[in-house]
Amino acid sequence: MCELFAVSSDQPIRIHYELRAFARRGGGRFRNRDGWGIVFAQHRDAYLFKEPAAASESPLERLVAKHTPPARLVVAHVRLATAGGALLANTHPFRRTHFGRVLHFAHNGSLPQLKTRFAASEAAANCVGDTDSELAFLLLLERLGPLEPAATPEQRFAVFREYCTEMRAEGTANFLFTDGEQLFVHAHKRRYEEDGAFSEPRAPALHMRTLVPGEDHWATEGAEVVSAPGTAVLLASVPLDKQEWTGLDEGTTLLIEHGRVRCSAAP
Predict the structure, then answer these.
(1) pTM surpassing 0.90?
(2) Which domains does the chain have, with CATH numbers?
(3) CA distances from 41 to 70, 160, 179 (A)
(4) Is residue 2 annotated as a catalytic residue, yes or no?
(5) Most buried residue, 58, 79, 129, 223, by CB count within 10 Å?
(6) 135 φ, ψ to 5°?
């Protein structure tokens, strides 16, 4: 299945995130060879690198991993195509500019009836690629539209939470959505690759770990914080090391800002 990863910190950090190592789940050891992408958010804009190929074999990924820009917020995705081919237009994270903010969205899961339900919608007409994930992103922006541009993060979170409830009824819906400052998270359920086959979807689909002041270095296979934060929250589809990761319950929705959970809700 697709793999998600994110970091939110209270100050700019350099995190070396080697998708070729992480993506042994993404093309080396497992089957998701259909694309990878990573966002490094900075003030009012973000670096976005993505490619419709296996991260485990990508020269571009090696370049990005070696020369990571500083950022307070990082979002990464490794793709197994379930809807839409291995094309750049179908590769996560997706980007849109909305009311002066650069927004990114990544999805793990499948929403098989979404494109049929919304085939005649403006959101569907504005999709660049063929995925249910991009359509889900544009539907979220439609929901947020009436609130903008002066909405508070809490108001956006309320809309996001309601939207995620709707998407859970459509299939499997694990989302990372960010405006570069806030990170909106929805954990649902996911399929695990076990003994060469995919399991039925189950929770937890996302795991969370917090780095606290004094924890001046964190490293694991495929990832390393090389400029220690005061406080940071890490999210990943599966635990990345043997430290304490908290599996998020099915239907958990979070708003994370600058390395701290600002809002949390259960279904």
Answers:
(1) yes
(2) 3-265 (3.60.20.10)
(3) 8, 20, 8
(4) yes
(5) 79
(6) -60, -40
